[in-house]
Write a structure and sequence with these properties.
single chain; binds zinc ion; 91 residues; two-stranded antiparallel sheet; elongated; 4 helices
C-alpha cells in the first residue's frame, strides 16, 4: 500500500500537534474533482484521515493519495499545526 507511506507523515503530524490543532479544525481545503472539475470543500482534519472523498457536485470518488492532493493536504496540515502551536504560545 504505497498511499499509506504518503499519508504517514500526516498521521505523525496530527499526533504530534494534537493538543494545538484547533486551527486545523477550522481550516477548509478545496479539492478539485477530476471528473467534473468542480471543487469540494472539506476540513483539513477530515482530509488528513482519509484516502478519498466523494465529490459534492457529481458524487465521483476523489483520490486524496495523488501526489498533488497528498502534498496539498500534508503541507496545509503542517501549516495549521504551526499556527496552532504558535497560538498556544501567545494565549
Ligand atoms: Zn465531481
Amino acid at each position: 500500500m504505497t498511499h499509506r507511506n504518503i499519508l504517514a507523515p500526516i498521521d505523525f503530524c496530527l499526533l504530534k500537534f494534537d493538543m494545538a490543532f484547533s486551527a486545523a479544525d477550522l481550516t477548509l481545503l478545496r479539492i478539485r474533482c477530476t471528473g467534473c472539475g468542480q471543487h469540494t470543500e472539506k476540513l483539513v482534519t477530515v482530509l488528513a484521515k482519509r484516502e478519498s472523498i466523494d465529490c459534492a457536485v457529481c458524487g465521483m470518488s476523489i483520490d486524496l493519495t495523488t501526489p498533488h492532493n497528498a502534498l496539498l493536504i500534508k503541507e496545509t496540515a503542517a501549516s495549521c499545526a504551526r499556527i496552532g502551536d504558535a497560538m498556544t504560545k501567545i494565549a
